[in-house]
Structures are given as structure tokens and as C-alpha cells.
Specification:
This protein has 444 residues and is of the alpha+beta class. It folds into three domains: 2-167, Cysteine proteinases (Cathepsin B, Chain A, Alpha-Beta Complex), CATH 3.90.70.10; 172-309, Jelly Rolls; 316-442, Jelly Rolls (Sandwich). The protein is 16% helix and 41% strand. The protein is built from nine helices and 25 strands. It has helices at residues 2-11, 22-30, 48-60, 75-81, 128-134, 138-143, 153-159, 224-229, 336-339, and strands at residues 33-38, 64-70, 88-97, 100-106, 148-152, 160-167, 174-182, 200-207, 211-219, 233-239, 256-257, 265-272, 276-287, 293-301, 305-309, 316-324, 345-349, 356-363, 369-379, 390-392, 397-398, 400-408, 411-419, 426-434, 438-442. Strand 3 and strand 4 (100-106) form a beta hairpin.
């Protein structure tokens, strides 16, 4: 173990590296799946009783390694409690005896022990029945400080900040991972208006019944400064979208909206209750991404599944920079006398075939509600499944709208971008992408 630890420190840049946490280290050393539970007694998402029962059951089955860590403490409070501020302790045992929920912890320094309830000096709580049940000799324990102590769960909740769990990957019969890169210049700095350019994956699970599926997102740490700064906040968002690409962060609403954290690991859990095929879209999301991110996405499941990156079918792209000004600021179709004055662009899809993919997006300052209409002028095959005479980008939105069309027949289409109200002057960017050759020209 000492050699393994030394090798790990060498990989992390040396003994002066800024430090991680036990969750990260145990995953690196064992490959066991990392999960963190923040101890927040006043938070509705933290169920103290349920958390204890889960750890008690799974620890004794050998399914999980457990460490717990303190938060920031003053020197006075830490000395009074016999604990170390922002320090991780290994859990050696967990028991529920005569209504008492107890942890046996070890300070990895092998000295300096807890001084509160159920410490070796506590004569009030250590009844003869409890000492016998746990085979605990407090007199012997007082003679030698090896850093090992018992502590009650109530004190853990009061003095500790987080529970780290590392789960045995052998609990899952099926696993698969994808290594990838997210370049700094791809996508906006914040996933507020669009996630169209965020990495997206299609997850399809063939479930026979109750099936847990865990998704672990791991951001690669490439230098020790990254550990000390921790600037990148990423997560996984899950959509029930049949494995198709998602463009807006909240349309459709996420099935699971992950918390953006600057830890190298984020674990997302999906529980499938029905038999059959279930399809999901997984989106790697970020908050103020500033650098290129290297990452691994690994899925674990008790049922067969496939995990594939959602590709980009668009091979042709045309970008327009323009603006609404003066008479060309015509507003939306609710204002028919001026709507026709808006800039208009003609898109000629030359094919071949009638199964073309078309993606149009409009960007403008966020203080303006924007949208666009697309009108079929002449179409080669009106029987094509994707034929339409007129479509809109939907509800007008602040600064950004996007429309994806499938099975579009070859033909000529007019695109009319606009603000919601006439007379609103602003610049805009219109981008048209297609899976087949096309031509784009401004009509007015």
C-alpha cells in the first residue's frame, strides 16, 4: 500500500500537490465508484435515517468503503471536540445497538481522538450492555491513543460535513465508458440559453424490471494547479428525450438536473422501474467553462445497455451577421403591417433525397425576445414525411432560439428572423446548418 501511495503521489505531481479528498483518492487507488453525501440536517434532500440504514446494510455486505470528513472548525472547537478541521476519517465499523447508531472511526494520523459522546472517557453513555455488545474495553482504550474511536450518529451530523462512499463496481454486471474532449471554444460560457453544443449521449437500457443505472462523469486532472484552483464546474443532466439531441436547458424539463460541482467526479443515479427499453439523453453541462475539458463518461447497470455519442449530421453551415434597424425592425407576425419588412433569407436545399436535416438558430442581445418563421416557397416532394408549408421557432425567447427539422424535402425556403415587437433595433446572428448541400442568400 505504501508503494501504491507513493506512485499515486508521483502521478499527482509530488508530495507538495494541493491535496484532494478521500473520495477521489479511493477511486484512483481502487476503481470503486465515488459518491458524496453532504451532511445538511436542515436540507430536505438529506434524510439522516435513510442514509444511516443504507450505510449500515451495505457496509456489512462489503459493498462500500466509507470515509467521513469534518468541515471548517475553529482551533478552539476542534481542540474541545478532539477532531481536526477539514479532515477525513476512515469508518471501520457501523452498528445499531439498543437504539444507538454508532460509527467506529479512525484518524489516519493514528492519534488524536474524539472527546465527546462514546469516546473512551465517556462513562455516562458506555453502559455495560453496550460495551459487551461492541466488545469495547474503555479502560484499555484510554491507555493507548491509536486514533480509533466510537462516535454516535448525532455527533457525526453535528461535527462532520460530508460522507464519502466508494461503491464496489462488481455490483453492476454491465459497464461501458467513453473518453472524450470538450474544447474551450465550443458552446457558450454558461449553459443558460442553449446546450446545443454541449456533449450529448444517447443511453438505451433494456430492462427486465427494477434496474439501477449509474452514470459517473470524471473530469481529467492534467496538472496539480488544476487541483488547487478547481475552476471548472461540470455535471450530467438527464432528459427523457428518446435519446435525441436537446437544445434548450429546460425545454423539455430535465428528468435529473445535476448539481454543477468543481469536484473531478459527479455521480448521477437513474432507477428504472419498468421492463422494456428506456431511452435517455445525457448532457455534459458546465458553468462558466473557461478551458478545454478532458473527461470520461462511464455507465454502470444491472441490465444490458448501449451508450453512444449523439453525432452531428450537419455537414454544411452558413452564418449571417445582420441586424434590425429602422424600417427592417418589423416585429413578429402579430404585426402584419410591418412583419414583412424584416430581413429575409432564402435557403435552397439541393439534396439529394428528401431525408435532409436542417438546423437554424438565431442569436441576439438577451434583452430582446426573438424568433423566426420558415416558409416553404417551392418543394420537390410534398409527400415527404418532413414536408411543411410554414413553421416557426416556437415561443419567442430572450436572445436565442433554435429549430431542428428532420426529413426535410429538397426545395426553397424563406427564413424571416424578427424581434417580438416592431421598432426594436438590435444586431443578430443567423446560422443555418444542413446535412446536404444548400445555398443561402439574402432577399431583403
Amino acid at each position: 500500500m505504501s508503494l501504491l501511495e507513493k506512485a499515486y503521489m508521483k502521478v499527482m505531481g509530488g508530495y507538495d500537490f494541493p491535496g484532494s479528498n478521500s473520495n477521489i483518492d479511493l477511486h484512483s487507488l481502487t476503481g470503486w465508484i465515488p459518491e458524496r453525501i453532504a451532511i445538511r440536517p436542515n436540507d430536505k434532500d438529506f434524510d439522516a435515517g435513510k442514509t444511516f440504514k443504507k450505510i449500515l446494510d451495505r457496509f456489512h455486505k462489503g459493498d462500500v468503503l466509507v470515509t467521513i470528513a469534518t468541515g471548517e472548525m475553529s482551533d478552539t472547537d476542534a481542540d474541545r471536540a478532539g477532531l481536526v478541521s477539514t479532515h477525513a476519517y476512515a469508518m471501520l465499523n457501523i452498528q445499531e445497538v439498543k437504539g444507538k447508531c454508532l460509527f467506529m472511526l479512525k484518524n489516519p494520523w493514528s492519534h488524536l481522538r474524539w472527546k465527546g459522546n462514546f469516546s473512551e472517557q465517556d462513562k455516562k453513555n458506555w453502559t455495560p450492555e453496550l460495551r459487551a455488545a461492541l466488545n469495547f474495553d474503555n479502560e484499555s482504550a484510554m491507555m493507548f491513543d491509536n486514533g480509533v474511536f466510537w462516535i454516535d450518529y448525532e455527533s457525526v451530523i453535528h461535527f462532520f460535513d460530508v460522507i464519502y462512499l466508494n461503491w464496489n463496481p462488481a455490483l453492476f454486471k454491465y459497464t461501458y465508458c467513453i473518453h472524450s474532449i470538450w474544447n474551450a471554444g465550443v458552446g457558450p460560457a454558461k449553459d443558460v440559453f442553449t446546450i446545443a453544443e454541449s456533449p450529448q449521449y444517447s443511453l438505451e437500457v433494456n430492462s427486465a424490471g427494477m434496474t439501477p443505472v449509474w452514470i459517473l462523469l470524471t473530469r481529467h486532472i492534467t496538472d496539480k494547479e488544476d487541483f488547487s484552483q478547481n475552476k471548472e464546474y461540470i455535471t450530467i443532466i438527464v432528459y427523457k428525450n428518446d435519446g435525441k439531441r436537446v437544445y434548450y436547458p429546460f425545454d423539455p424539463a430535465p428528468y435529473i438536473d445535476g448539481t454543477r460541482i468543481n469536484s473531478p467526479h459527479y455521480l448521477c443515479k437513474i432507477l428504472i422501474n419498468t421492463a422494456g427499453v428506456s431511452k435517455y439523453t445525457l448532457v455534459v453541462s458546465q458553468y462558466e467553462k473557461s478551458t478545454t475539458i478532458y473527461y470520461t463518461l462511464r455507465a454502470y447497470s444491472t441490465s444490458p445497455f448501449t451508450l453512444t455519442k449523439i453525432g452531428n449530421p450537419y455537414r454544411h453551415k452558413h452564418e449571417v451577421t445582420n441586424g434590425w434597424k429602422g424600417s427592417t425592425a418589423g416585429g413578429c407576425a402579430n404585426h402584419p403591417t410591418t412583419h414583412g419588412n424584416n430581413p429575409m433569407y432564402q435557403v435552397n436545399i439541393t439534396g439529394p433525397g428528401d431525408d435532409n436535416h436542417l438546423l437554424i438558430d438565431l442569436k441576439a442581445p438577451k434583452e430582446f425576445q426573438v424568433g423566426f418563421d420558415i416558409v416553404a416557397v417551392s418543394v420537390n416532394n410534398k409527400s415527404a414525411p418532413g414536408y411543411f408549408s410554414n413553421k416557426s421557432s416556437g415561443a419567442f425567447r430572450s436572445g436565442f432560439v433554435i429549430l431542428a427539422l428532420e426529413n426535410v424535402p429538397c426545395g426553397i425556403y424563406n427564413v424571416i428572423p424578427s424581434t417580438y415587437y416592431p421598432g426594436q433595433e438590435a444586431p443578430f446572428f443567423l446560422t443555418v446548418q444542413s446535412s446536404c448541400p444548400m445555398k443561402v442568400a439574402q432577399l431583403q
